[in-house]
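Appendix B. Raw example, untouched.
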Amino acid sequence: MREIVTIKKIDESFLQIECEKHTQNELWGEFTFMAENYKYDPRFKHKQWDGKIHLYNIKYSLIYVGLLPEIKQFLEKNGYEVVLDKSITEQSDLDFPS
């Protein structure tokens, strides 16, 4: 049976993703990138930061609204069933092409 992942719109900036912990870890890893010039940042040099920027907030399960198409694509590719909350499906501004 496929795991169900529910995506809800919190406000105009953020979506909340309801899923299992292991799925959160996958999202956290997938929506991560290295900061530009991270090697020169004092926090990186002093080993206080790994140089990565994480777009998914694992503590609050939040991610940016603009990433919805990429989130859906990633989850469906990895075998998850994606359920969009009515707060998203009723919004014409979030009607992205599949």
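End of appendix B.
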